[in-house]
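Let's practice the habit of predicting before peeking. Look at the sequence and jot down your guess about where helices and strands might fall. Then scroll down.
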Amino acid sequence: MTNLLIAGAGFLGSEIARQAAPDFKVTTLTKSGGDGSLACDLSSESEIKKLREKIPTPDLIIHCASSGRGGPEAYQAIFVNGTRRLKETFPEAHLLFTSSTSVYHQTEGETVDETSPTSPERETSRLLLEAEKQVDTAARLAGLYGPNRSVILRKFLADEAVIEEDGRRILNQIHVQDAASACLFLAKGKHSGVFNVTDDEPMSQLECYQGLAKHFNKPLPPTGERKLSNKRAWTHKSVKNAKLRHLGWKPKFPHFFYALKE
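Done guessing? Here is the structure:
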């Protein structure tokens, strides 16, 4: 049976482990351990190297740890240094890193694919690009959502949502089940390179809130200014998943509103 190491068993990593269980011998890592996971701080060179003595040599590694909401220092330690040390420790393993579509900097509603320029303003996104260069496969994930976890839905239901300017900004999203299945698909097939992991139908912020308002019979949120993040620059682009779909993968939830029906 194929040995799979999942470095980071949080929201996404736990779903990857669940889907992988029937076909892989799965080992999961978290910083503190527990709940079936080994303790390993991915920012620690010594702890990563000790894995050689603790686990079966992995055939595949999926690095999907979070930064713990940290800034550039955490991104450097966990993503850049972490991927490099995992590759050094297990050079025979195929390493997949879950990056982000935030590396695309476009702001004019452009359609982007894996060949599009990436010149992000934020240092955190530039560090993701640096980590991508050290791995076999980079899965650029759109905004992740799933059961009991959707920033857009939570803010809408709590009456905290704001439509930015005219609502034209495009939202690129992916359900956690689809993100997990895509990562497993890419890792198992050892498909090297960069792949966008997003659903089939990006939509504008206005379209999203109009759909939610209709579904829940609530008024539209008020309009306001752009919401700027400390980590992510304001972007406006439509991310395409054609490269991944061409390999044979397809999402269970091709559109955000499909998940509302379950």
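How did you do? The chain has one domain: 2-150+173-204+238-254.
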